[in-house]
Every structure is written in structure tokens, then in C-alpha cells.
């Protein structure tokens, strides 16, 4: 089973997608609600230029590519493509909102190879208000460009549902890192799966695909359910990759210093390690995990290697990939959801290193 979109075509769309951003920002800062205060428009542009720079843009690009694959060919026009790219940038703004807030809560120092927004001297904790500005600006853009569209209410509801789910996932994630010291009773597969579903998978894969379906006026409940099931499976694969990269990825490649060990996060590596530890290894884990001391972080990394987690990760990545492929093959009879859509999503992330 092959994809109908090559990586070169993907790169071409990425370039086109990037070219749309200035006009999206311009439509925001010149809107009636913002244009009366020029100083604010300048600040809003600075926020967006900084926090939308860099990154892979997979969520926004998936929105565009999914629309192209789901829409009837006769309905695809330059205007409909422009709108799909605008929608894609709204998804990227939602991502920026999450990352800006996440960096503050995690105490991160860098993001995409540059200082986190809140670490800039002229920003500081004013970044908390800036995150709200990013989200509400996203909603303003949606109203400006889609307010007269048939699916506008469904689109807004989908964004709001995604925010609710992501906030729930973030709550689960934070409560895990704020548990009583050495209490790892909640580091279970079930808890981890819940964090992944709500914090990552919904907005990373389900949201772009379901938005594209709405842009194509597909509101069939069964089709949306199937899209959600496969998107969440891909999201799980994506998150275990993120967990592995956080610990074993090179900062020079990822642009972000890993923080999961020092923050005591409920990651795939931590959950799997606790399942495999003997008593002595568990003592090492409980003594060193969630500690900011470089020697303790290094000891956890050595423990992961002793438990052969890098090898297990590669096998788990393959198993998850095969499981998604099996579900995709089952879509052949459903013409409203072309299998190629999910294949290109898999192709974008499989065996990624950043």
C-alpha cells in the first residue's frame, strides 16, 4: 500500500503553507478588534512570529493535506486551499499556545533551538497572558475566515473540545510529577495511555483530520469515529517517540533539552522500566528519578540501557506502526476515508529522531 503524496510534494506544500502565514497574521492585526491599538498589534505580531517559527508544522500541514485528499476534486479551488492553509495555521497557533504554557509549567529553557518565550527578558511571566492572546487570536482568525461557513459552529466546537481534552491531559501529566516522593503506584500503562490520549493524540492527529473532514463538509458520525480511532493510534506512536527522544535524542538535533527524567514524568520509558526492574534496580529508580542532579539523570539513563529499553522501544515503535497499518487496510471499503491519508501521516513520523 503506497501513498499518493511524495515527500517532495510534501516539502512543496510546506513552502506554500509557510508563505500564507504573513497574510494570516495581517488579517488578525488589522481586524477591527485589534487595529485601534497599534502598539498591541506590534506585540501580537512579535508573539506569533516568535512562537510559530521553526518546528515541523506537521499538524498544520496534515490539515491541508487531509483536506486535499478528502475533498471532491471539483470543489478544490485556490480559495478553498487558502482557507485550508489558514485553518492549518489555526492548528499551529493552538500548538503554540500549548507549548508556551507547557514550557512555563515545566521550567524549560529552550524550544526549537531558541530560548522559550517566557525566558526572554522583555516577556517573563507576562507570557501567561500572551498564551491567552494566542488562543483568543486563533479564535478571532477562525471567525474572520470561517464565520460565514456552514461548518463554523462545528469547527469552533471541535477546537474547544480539543482544548478541554488537552487541558485534562496536562492535568494528569502534572499531577503525576507532583505526587508524593517515591510513589509510583500510578505509573501504569492505563494512566500513561490516558495522558497520551488527552494531552497529545487528540490535538496532534485527530484535530487536523476532523477539521479537514469538516472543511470538506463531511459530518458523517461513523466516518469521524473511524478517523478518530486511527488518529489516536498514530498519536500513541508519536508520544512514545517523543518520550524516547526526550531522553536519548541529541539537543543539537531536537532543539530542546530533555526534561522528563528530572521532572519525574510518567513517560513510556519510566512505565516500562518499572515493569522490568528487579528490587535493586527499582531502588535506583526511586532514588534518582525526578531529580535535577546531572549524576542522577545519567544514572537513570544507564538504568534504561541496562533494562534494554532502547531495543524495546524500537520493537514497540514497529508494533505500533504495524497495528496502525492493520487498521488502515480495513478502510479500503470506506471511500470517504482514503487509506493514503493515514499512510502519509505515518510516513511523516515513523522512525523520526526529532
TrEMBL record:
GO biological process, one term: farnesyl diphosphate biosynthetic process
GO molecular function, one term: dimethylallyltranstransferase activity
Keyword Ribosomal protein listed: no
Pathway(s) this gene product operates in, as recorded in its UniProt entry: Pheromone biosynthesis
Matches recorded under InterPro entries: FPS1-like, Isoprenoid_synthase_dom_sf, Polyprenyl_synt, Polyprenyl_synt_CS
The entry's keywords: Magnesium, Metal-binding, Transferase
Pfam families noted in UniProt: polyprenyl_synt
GO cellular component labels: cytoplasm
Reported cofactor(s): Mg(2+)
Membership in a protein family: Belongs to the FPP/GGPP synthase family.
Full protein name: Farnesyl pyrophosphate synthase
Source organism: Parnassius mnemosyne
Lineage of source species: Eukaryota, Metazoa, Ecdysozoa, Arthropoda, Hexapoda
Amino acid at each position: 500500500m503506497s501513498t499518493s503524496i511524495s515527500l517532495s510534494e510534501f516539502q512543496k506544500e510546506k513552502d506554500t503553507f509557510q508563505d500564507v502565514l504573513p497574510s494570516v497574521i495581517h488579517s488578525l492585526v488589522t481586524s477591527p478588534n485589534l487595529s485601534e491599538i497599534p502598539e498591541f498589534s506590534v506585540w501580537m505580531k512579535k508573539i506569533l512570529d516568535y512562537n510559530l517559527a521553526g518546528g515541523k508544522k506537521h499538524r498544520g500541514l496534515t490539515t491541508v493535506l487531509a483536506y486535499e485528499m478528502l475533498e471532491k476534486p471539483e470543489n478544490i479551488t485556490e480559495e478553498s486551499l487558502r482557507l485550508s492553509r489558514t485553518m492549518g495555521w489555526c492548528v499551529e497557533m493552538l500548538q503554540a499556545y500549548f507549548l508556551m504554557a507547557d514550557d512555563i509549567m515545566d521550567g524549560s529553557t529552550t524550544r526549537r533551538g531558541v530560548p522559550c518565550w517566557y525566558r526572554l527578558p522583555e516577556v517573563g511571566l507576562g507570557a501567561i497572558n500572551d498564551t491567552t492572546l494566542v488562543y483568543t487570536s486563533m479564535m478571532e482568525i477562525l471567525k474572520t475566515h470561517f464565520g460565514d461557513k456552514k461548518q463554523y459552529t462545528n469547527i469552533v466546537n471541535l477546537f474547544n473540545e480539543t482544548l478541554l481534552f488537552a487541558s485534562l491531559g496536562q492535568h494528569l501529566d502534572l499531577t503525576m510529577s507532583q505526587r508524593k516522593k517515591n510513589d509510583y503506584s500510578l505509573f501504569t500503562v492505563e494512566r500513561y495511555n490516558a495522558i497520551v490520549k488527552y494531552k497529545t493524540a487528540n490535538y496532534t492527529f485527530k484535530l487536523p483530520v476532523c477539521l479537514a473532514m469538516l472543511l470538506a463538509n463531511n459530518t458523517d458520525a461513523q466516518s469521524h469515529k473511524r478517523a478518530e480511532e486511527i488518529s489516536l493510534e498514530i498519536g500513541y506512536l508519536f508520544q512514545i517517540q517523543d518520550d524516547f527522544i526526550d531522553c536519548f535524542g541529541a539537543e543539537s538535533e531536537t532543539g530542546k533539552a530533555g526534561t522528563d527524567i528530572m521532572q519525574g514524568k510518567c513517560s513510556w520509558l519510566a512505565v516500562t522500566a518499572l515493569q522490568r526492574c528487579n528490587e535493586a534496580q527499582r531502588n535506583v529508580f526511586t532514588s534518582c528519578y525526578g531529580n535535577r542532579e546531572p549524576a542522577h539523570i545519567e544514572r537513570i539513563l544507564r538504568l534504561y540501557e541496562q533494562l534494554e529499553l532502547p531495543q524495546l522501544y524500537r520493537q514497540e515503535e514497529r508494533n505500533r506502526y504495524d497495528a496502525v497499518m492493520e487498521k488502515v487496510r480495513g478502510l479500503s471499503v470506506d471511500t470517504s476515508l482514503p487509506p493514503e491519508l493515514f499512510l502519509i501521516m505515518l510516513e511523516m513520523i515513523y522512525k523520526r529522531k526529532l
